[in-house]
Amino acid sequence: MAKQTAEAKAMNTSERSGGTTSRSSFADTYVMDFEKPVIELERKIAEMRTLASSPGMKSLAVEIDRMEKKAAHMREEVYRNLSSWQKVQIARHPRRPYTLDYIQRICDSWIELHGDRGFADDHAVVGGMAQIDGRPVLIVGQQKGRGTKDNLFRNFAMANPEGYRKALRLMRLAAKFGRPIITLIDTPGAYPGLGAEERGQAEAIARNLYEMARLPVPVISIVIGEGGSGGALAISVADEIHMLEYAIYSVISPEGCASILYRDAGQASQAAESLKLTAKDLVDLKLVDGIIPEPSGGAHNDFDFTAQQVKERITERLKHLSRFSPSELLTARHQKYEKMGYWLEA
């Protein structure tokens, strides 16, 4: 990359190390319930490999090969039959790649821009000018942190009004120079604090919805993790919306929905099924345009593969959208949203 922030460089060498092609030791300590049988088998395989390196133990190679095939088959079976709630857990996995991880991997260059020119620089939202395969673009996304200190710095990817105003400022700048806009969605929702409400959280979100609907350049949104409520929608009014295979996109969290409908947040798994928040559900409902495949076990198992899939989808769709004039883009975008939620009553 031509230019990186000091923080991004530090994350590249520490927090992100070990997450590119295999499960890190940190991920091993965070095991989801439905993964436990597979993880246990993989740990036994690792122990057997250690034994096999000892003199006279080469005969274990055949058994290791058999167990590796069994583990791969088990993982494939588990991930083929995931419930909506299990996909929520994967979308929230603490080792899942975040916005800066994708920027590091898909961009030739990246220059981060800061501030809303009105109040402050919101660290929950990152944005800047970039190049993807030599093509100038603007990338805006929500950024979660790794660990308590970084999560507090990023406010758990829950933006204040200044975050959405920063995003809009950058999108207007991109429109001025004719640059396509890429947004990466990963937030539990907009920050609901008193200060955020006092500074106009609802107005900031509504303004983004209004302005993004009128941007005269191609806009592509990718849901890379959690797409929560208006906090996600505020930067995802786009010509096309795509989701990673195990990402979620919903008007409310399953826990919040369960608290309202069932008076019990413990019913979140039932609420998740009803919310239709998975990528497959939303494609079937024609609210999302496509699904981006993830590696076996989820994006946290292979950052590079996932980033490559995201990059290919972005370049492919940009090539398609770039054929249209600004007026054609706006007409198609408006028609896309007018059709949502439409049905006939007998």
Tell me the CATH superfamily of the largest domain.
2-enoyl-CoA Hydratase, Chain A, domain 1
Q: Roughly what is the average pLDDT, rounded to an integer?
A: 87
Q: Give start-end ranges of low-pLDDT stretches.
A: 1-27
Number of strands: 8
Order of helices and strands: HHHHHHEEEHHEHHEHEEHHHEHH
Class based on secondary structure composition and strand pairing = alpha/beta
Structure description:
It is a single chain. With 346 residues, the chain is an alpha/beta fold. The chain has two domains: 31-82; 93-338, 2-enoyl-CoA Hydratase, Chain A, domain 1. It is built from 16 helices and eight strands. Strands 1, 2, 3, 4, 5, 6, 7 and 8 form an eight-stranded mixed beta sheet that branches. Helix 11 links the parallel strand 5 (219-228) and strand 6. Residues 1-27 have low confidence and may be disordered.
Give the SSE map:
Layout: H1 6-13, H2 25-29, H3 36-52, H4 60-80, H5 84-91, H6 99-106, E1 109-112, E2 125-132, E3 135-142, H7 148-154, H8 161-176, E4 181-187, H9 194-198, H10 201-212, E5 219-228, H11 229-233, E6 240-244, E7 248-250, H12 254-261, H13 268-275, H14 279-284, E8 290-292, H15 303-321, H16 326-338
Helix pairs in contact: 3-4, 5-13, 6-15, 8-10, 12-13
